[in-house]
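User: Thanks for the earlier help. One more: Acyl-coenzyme A dehydrogenase. Can you show the sequence and predicted structure together?

Assistant: Of course, both are below.
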Amino acid sequence: MSFRRDTITKPIFSWARGVLPAMSDTEREALEAGDVWWDADLFTGDPDWSKLLKIAPARLTDEEQAFLNGPVEELCAMLDEWRIFWEWRDLPQDVWHFVKREKFFGMIIPKEFGGLGFSPYAHSEVVRKISTRSIAAAVTVMVPNSLGPGELLMRFGTKEQQDRWLPRLADGRDIPCFGLTSPEAGSDAASMVDTGIICKSIFEGREVIGLRLNWHKRYITLGPVATLLGLAFKAYDPDHLIGDQEELGITLALIPTNLPGVEIGQRHLPSMQVFQNGPNRGRDVFVPLDYVIGGKERLGQGWKMLMTALAAGRGISLPSLSAAGAAYAARTTGAYARIREQFGISISKFEGVEEPLARIVATAYQLDAARRLTCAALNAGVHPAVISGIMKLHATERMRIAVDDAMDIHGGKAVIDGPQNYLGNLHRAVPVGITVEGANILTRNLIVFGQGAIRAHPYLLDEMNALADTDRERGLTAFDTAFWKHVGHSFQTLFRAFGRSWTYGAFAMAPDAGDATPFYRQLSRYSAAFALCADMALLTLGGALKRKEMLSARFGDILSELYLLSAVLKRWQDEGRQKEDFAALEWCMATGFKTIENRLAEILANLPNRFVAGFLKLVVQPFGARVLGPSDRVVRQCAGIVLEPSAARERLTPDLAHVDDDGGFARLERAFKLVAAIDAIARRMRAAHIRDWKDAVAKGVITQAEGEQLAAAHEAVTKVIEVDDFAPEALSPIYRKAADVHQFFQELGEQRAAS
């Protein structure tokens, strides 16, 4: 072992230390945050499917289910999205009082501190349901339960901080927000110029050591109404009051917004969404050191704390909202396509409509599958950092596609705004999810594979840590162990990828999963191809791969597809292999396989080392990219899931916010049920070439009762197709002013006439 280390490994070690790019503190802390999970299995090139299938599905407790059936239903009934975003520009006061009283802001806070103590899955289910009624309400509820003071206090706060602040956050006495984004630094938090200088000052009548803070933050959700601000800043100790180090690094602190020097700005209007969001500033705000989250010992650890908390929050909030949006789009668009006729037939019969409708259906199936699987990890105490990045990126991106498709199928119905438009505000809200927590461009190009390649790879992080070890001998020994394990793993992966690619995965390991078994074999094949290509890219490019963003993005796309397709297979298995859902499964797999093959082809076409690229093509893609996507049969069957009342439709779109009112969604649901119920009657009339139901009754084709059913369905469809219109003065202050002037002169004239 020492001979190998000293004669073979040592030169490689010296070379690698010389070419290893420097890693910033923020990069290292991001890599160390959170956990690896199923992503690590996918990176091995030989995933253990039995491990995936043994994962306990996320379930609600009786208490959590009662909360959904009670307070959540009651909240949804209180929400009128049109009036919230068009008239009030805010949630009404009775809603604010209700969410505080029922502890919606304290769902994740343990019961010992007065919170509800709910699981991540319960948090996800609550956000998902509210999202289908009101985006503003959903965002208001989800922010205090994701990245914010509450979660940071629970994970890193001192006992005194937890006892003081968590009960106040749980019952709504304090409304939290978190200030991270600065005008000078958006996704690049290391460039923030917000500062906290350690100094002595008077606080509440006594001299203490603390921080004098100056900051400028923007895009802060709940900022305009927050009473407790979590703040990220760079801490400095120029006078060495607590140690020898001057630059301490990114630090997190709790700032009551009533302190002198705190300035709460006016509101932003993010994409016409009216959840509370705005800027804030601090000018020479002084707080004691015990306001630092975790106390003095946590000075400079803020970025790692944030990344650890984000590993959980990213996997819940935005994926829940996105899954809700896709399910809502599937249910409404399927119903609308079923009842809307053009050229004498339902538009659902047009293949041009079936294709985007199938995409919406399969997206809804996939996003909820991935949401549930990710929540299962979180419920088990795992905080999957790479997977949370995948979820944020792909949940919001695929929701965007689903909502765009829904808009296309609805046409003018979804374009004309008003109380009866049940889709337009969701469409406007999509860019917010795409942008928040770092734009998806950043996540796709830098984070998913850039972080995943190091964290999820079985040996790469060990090798990097060994290379960075300041003790050269210790580092060499650790590198020798990890490097040769890596070499052995690479040869295994090479032979595995070669065998599976040339046989189309025919002999790859797969569980007995009925009709889905071949899909597992293909995923095993693609996992091996991905692992080999990733290893070769890392070997030939080294640290330069970080700057090859387009290559990194393609690798990230493959890793993401492997995870999302795993989630779809897991859902189909957990739900009892429902035959009626198989078309959605087929669509997801065919589309995902097409993406994987295309990304592999793009990687091989652009890998700088052309000899390695040619070798890899021979091994992993000898016959080229051959998967074409879902067949027309699968498309038709997938679209059909939402075109008739069925158990499959309910499984796809469970527990949406159904409020029995005269709103657009309620009208649509009623019309859909009525149209589905008269299908056989309508067929008899078409066969008799009769359009008027009264004529059909007179000729004995249908009964009077059946004719009245037809009339009721026709009336319901007419109400759905209707769009809103407004008097000019209802929309514009110009017309309101003119109307007021006209009324004034009219009243003046009447008074003169009377006198």
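User: Great, one quick takeaway?

Assistant: The mean pLDDT is 91.
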